[in-house]
Amino acid sequence: SAAHSLQQTELNSLRQELQITNQHRLHMEATRSSLLTQLADREQSLDQFRHTHERMSKLNRDMSASFSKLQMDYITSTKELERLNGVEERLVWSERRLEEYVDDSDDGGDDGGTEAN
Known about the structure:
98% helix
C-alpha cells in the first residue's frame, strides 16, 4: 500500500539521517580526543618551558651575583694594589735615602780617619 510505502521511505530517510548524525558524532568525538591530546602535549611543553625558564632565571641571577662579587673583588684588589704601589714607592725612596746616608757616613768616617793621622 501507498501509506506503508511512504512510511518505509520516511523510515529509510530517518535511518540515513541517524547514520549521518552518528558519523558526525564519531568524527566529533575523534576530533575532541585529538584536541585533548594536543592540549595535553602543549601543556606539558608549557610546563617544561616554565621549568626551563625558572632554571635559566635562577642561573642568570646567580651569574649576576657572581659578576657583581667579581667586580667588587676587582675594585678592592685594584685599591689594594694602588695602596701597595704607594708603599713600595715610599720603601724604595727610604732604601735610597738609607743607602745615601750609609754611603755618606762611610765617606765621612774615612775622611775623619785620614785627618787624624
